[in-house]
Amino acid sequence: MLAEQGPLEIEVAACRVQTNIKRRLMQYEEVLGIVQCLDKNGVTKCDHYLSNAPSSTPLKEFAIRFCHSWRPGT
Questions:
Q1: What is the rounded (10 degree) CA torsion for 16, 37, 47, 14?
Q2: Stated pTM of the model
């Protein structure tokens, strides 16, 4: 059974990046997303994600997708 945790307030930033694997620059770009918020104890939690979404994707959409399966303090 899951407990109600209340609303989640977060900060999200996203930018286009190119992955570098073993000193080889990949030919495609990805979006690097950074999510930051406070957990239930007031400690800042930070996580990052990579996405292949188009650059025209709104930041709000990234926030929804990045937080879909991530909840601080869980």
A1: 0
A2: 0.65
